[in-house]
Amino acid sequence: MVTSATHLPLKGIRVTDATASFAGPYLTNMMATLGAEVIKVDSLQRLDLWRPSATQLLSPRDKVWEWSPNWNAVNTDKLCITLNLTDPRGVDVFKRLVSISDVVAENYTPRVMPNFGLDYSVLRNLNPGLVMISLPSHGSTGPWKNVPGFATPNELMSGVVELMGYPDDAPMHSGTGIADPIAGMNGLIAVMFALLQRQTTGVGQYIDLSQIEASTCLLGDAIVEDSMNGVTPTRQGNRHPFAAPHGYYQCGGDDLWISISVSSDEEWRALCRVMGDPPWSRDEKFASEDGRRENHDELDQLIESWTLQYDHYELMHTLQEAGVTACAVLTSAELLSDPHLNERGTFQLVERDLIGARHYPVPTAPMHFSETPLKVRKPAPFLGEHNEYVLGELLGMSEGEIQSMADDQVIGTEP
Amino acid sequence: MSPSALAGIKVLDLTHYIAGPYCTRILAGFGADVVKIERPGQGDGARRVGPFLDDEPGPERSGLFLYLNGSKRGVTLDLKSERGIEIFTDLVSEADVVVESFSPGVMERLGLGYDSLKKINPKIILTSISNFGQTGPYRDYKISHAGAWGLSGARCTNGRIGERPVQLARWMTHYVTGLYGTIGAATALFHRAVTGRGQHVDVSMMDSAIMMTCHPSSIYSFTGLVHTNHSGRPGKEVLECRDGGYVGAFAWTLPQWERMFALLGVPEMGDDPEFRASFDVGNEKARRANREVMRTTIAEQVKSRDRMELFRTAMEWMAPIVLVATTQEILDSPQHAARGFFDEVEHPVIGNVTMPGAPFKMSESAWRPTGPAPLLGQHNAEIYGERLGYDVEELIDQGVI
Fold this sequence. Notes:
The complex is a heterodimer of chains A (about 425) and B (about 400). By secondary structure, chain A is α/β, with parallel strands linked by helices. Chain A has helices spanning about 25-35, 70-75, 90-100, 110-115, 120-125, 150-155, 180-200, 210-215, 220-230, 265-275, 290-295, 295-305, 310-320, 330-335, 340-345, 385-395, 400-405, and strands at about 15-20, 35-40, 80, 105, 130-135, 205-210, 245-250, 255-260, 325-330, 345-350, 355-360, 365-370. The longest helix of chain B has 24 residues, at about 170-195.
């Protein structure tokens, strides 16, 4: 039994990480921050699809595949090897790595791993305690299982987009690809449950996670509404079922906004006091929630004519001090300088060769563990940076074997 | 009976509304014994949030409450009474996890802060879910779903400059906070299994929303850009069909683009050498520019097709053209049916309801299909009488339950 108070939760757990893009890598990113040894398996022939992400915003760079802000953010604390899985030697290395791993994660469509001869039925024979997770868009079974997808189409299929936007206008997507991190979060829950179960039984298992299903679960109340009442719910714009006024209001400055959400008469009166009790606010039609809802458009204009005079951040503090639910709409620059987030350590400046010091969110930031405060311990790895450590030290392959694989581009450090 | 990952794990659920109850819903679904503790009289505030059966409010008519609280047992307890605290202490002494979502400081004022719980049960895990976390200058601030979405940095990629932000669908920022609550509890349980130590996990809704949007801060750190604006306006990525209604057409890799062009009857678009070269490493800028040009052609092609026929063909071709799915289409999906995604629940007041079941499938851990959510105080006799040996009538007379 370990008694050190700084025992990282996943210390001693090794992960073979065959995931790419955002969903799978976010899952293994959290595992790495939690202390697991995560070995990312990339390929010179087929680079992680996330490596170009947002690089169009940068001027031309040397080794551009190392430069994606988004890729860098979700691969901290990992090791990286390259393997050509269409070469039998690549498949052999993968199997040997799986046999000394606790977890293997992949998010290809379900035909890919069997094509490499690396499906769960093969891998579990190498390692009966293995926990394997697959997180394809549609899941590993069913008629649409092989249809490719990624964050945005998954957001459409899961119902998010139909329910976002204004009722009299076209649906909108989140713009931030939320289906990916949602799949990653669910994936980590599943892996944790499986590791917990293995502690007692010694037996591993296979986890089949459909990214679309994972997001639909977060719309369960909308599914229930349809099933229960036979009425298909639609978009609500910025309205709220029991708060009025409710919405985003423009503040002073360029494209700066605040959300205000008033869910009781008491909160309404507090808002009015902060506004200086203007004569219009005493109108009887705004006295009750029903009245405020019936006159919501007019109320929005009146409130906005007031919010426009103020800075969105200062107004948040003033309204919150008065007991009104008001939150500034933060820009990315403001996120990095926000005093609350700084005190809680949400973002961390991480130095990486070639890339320099950049800010990334700590992958586990939403959770503070009293036993093990967590932070990013090292930056994302370079392509194939750990080929020698993993193939040589962990798997005991000879220099000759490793060199011959490098000669044939089975492994390497440049695409 | 199939094994389950959380068999034998006892959870006391002091949460209300969405985030906390969603956290414990997942724990219950994978085998934990969850006892939901509500205030006598009013109960969980989610009972007063819709959707309601036939749009008529009532504490046993909320579809939201039903979705979040099936598979749990429900009791009432007045934590402001001495007797209530005494009973809660009894429950804590044999529990593994307590999940709470009061405002920061409330548990301490009740004498139930982590240090107090640890004295009752040294291995206890306390998961606290709150708006801004248990520390920091905004600790006592209030938050809403729209507020969390605004604080998350989502504005940087959602909506055009000068256009009013739009909140994320339904209550998703609350649910995501619940997911981190579940991760926190599961991680602490694993840590305890290895080290024998319990702990306090502090989950923040603001940080949860930030991790759901994830990238704006890193993009800013690399580029200095505060607004990169990939928005979701019509004509951009959501496309209207001939018979009305929307689909999305998205490809990432070259083979996906080729399948989509073939399906839309414009295969020659995939032959353009400049287009093909844009998939080379380092050509991301050209790829983005190309996509803008192609969107117009794709939108025209989609506009000349009927929606369901286009979608069915796309699924057969494994081409990435998908529905902007309505809840009705999700309920009717042959994919969900084949995978047994939905749970069918029979509730004494609401009747038969279909709802999402397991968020993922585990080969060695059965999902416990969602049951009817407990009526207020439904399991008082079982938990207080049978399990703890209290005189239930007396507790009712004292107003403790």
